[in-house]
Amino acid sequence: MANIKELSKIPERLTGGHRLCSGCGASIAVRQVLMGTKDPVVVR
Q1: In the chain, domain spans
Q2: Residue 16: C-alpha distances to residues 3, 6, 12, 22, 26 (Å)
Q3: Predicted pLDDT of residue 39
Q4: Backbone angles phi, psi at 30, to 5 degrees
Q5: 20 pLDDT band (50/70/90 cuts)?
Q6: What does the alpha-carbon distance between residue 5 and residue 7 come to, in Å, rounded to a whole number?
Q7: Consecutive H or E run containing 2
Q8: Rounded to a whole number, what is the largest CA-CA distance in the chain?
């Protein structure tokens, strides 16, 4: 399991233009899921 320092070094994978609020639960959940995957992910 990664520690907080390792997680902070992971590049942001949720790009701009996603139309989610920065503080809403959906964007936080998507960001966490993307942090846990290594493969490229496309959601449509």
Answers
A1: 4-36
A2: 26, 23, 10, 10, 15
A3: 87
A4: -65, -45
A5: confident
A6: 5
A7: none
A8: 31
